């Protein structure tokens, strides 16, 4: 596989060296009309030939450098960093690919251990930990995954309309998410892991960024997925402008609640009852819920759950939500 990539990279090198050749001009007109071949990307609907060339380009990008000309008769030239004469060869490309694979595998074995040990110790809700587990195993029903299961859907991302909706694209590299990553200031780390799988991206990020930032990132991913489903199935407008603040607030509230001791509730006189109510603001779907339990001095009764109200986005804070929960409980 590595040798094949080195062979394909040789063809890309030839295109770089002869941009005026007929194959280069045909490919430029179809795939990278507004940019150079060194910055070209794979697109939805690309031919197998072009996808293969992009695969070779990924290897070539690890070692090509541009020598700037004098602006006159001497034009800019490309050189290959890993060969003394500056020319790419399959032998040198294969050596680089092999070194990168060995480095990645060696680093991966160490990082994998810390990833699995650290995942379940993150200070985030349990359902978000499970969501990270699903991300790692690509167990998310994105369009690309549904197509693999023979479900007839359009592969294109419905938010940006620019690429196939894979789990990695839907949660990380969709262009509609760039404003969120700019707030978290992790785009450089995310972009560095672009060429790997989603599992490799998770392991890499867990190793290089602070735990607090990774916990917030995990919450954001969960909200991004909520928002994606909200658009797709609720047919409503995206609220991605609120995702960062919502994820941050929910994480702070969860971590603050985890540090508090459990509340002891007295049942009052023997045979008497106490009411325990709770209210919550809905997540991306924008609903309010209610619930509660009856506490008796001699017996515990199962929780009483209520329906949902039509609260707007974030209309109820935790305090008001709790009061509403108690009041609604009295009517149950």
Task: Provide a descriptive summary of the structure in words.
- The protein is mainly alpha-helical.
- It has 13 helices and five strands.
- The chain has a three-stranded antiparallel β-sheet with strand order 3-4-5. Strands 1-2 form a two-stranded antiparallel ribbon.
- A hairpin with a 6-residue loop joins β3 and β4 (288-296).
- It is globular.
Major sheet summary line? 3 strands, antiparallel
The rounded distance between the terminal residues' Cα atoms is 64 Å
Oligomer classification = single chain
Describe the strand arrangement of the main beta sheet, using strand numbers. 3-4-5
H and E order: HHHEEHHHHHHHHHEEEH
**β content, as a range?**
5-15%
Number of distinct helices: 13
From the spread of the alpha carbons, the general shape counts as: globular
| Chain-averaged pLDDT | 77
Rg calc: 27 Å
How would the blueprint of this fold be written?
Elements (H helix, E strand, L loop, with lengths): L1 H16 L4 H10 L16 H13 L3 E4 L9 E4 L9 H30 L6 H11 L6 H6 L18 H7 L4 H7 L2 H6 L5 H11 L2 H24 L8 H16 L14 E9 L6 E9 L7 E6 L8 H13 L2
Antiparallel strand pairs: 1-2, 3-4, 4-5
List keywords for this structure.
332 residues, mainly alpha, three-stranded antiparallel sheet, two-stranded antiparallel sheet, 13 helices, 5 strands, globular, disordered C terminus
Give the gist of this structure.
The protein is mostly helical and 332 residues long. Helix content is 51%, strand content 10%. This is Reverse transcriptase zinc-binding domain-containing protein.
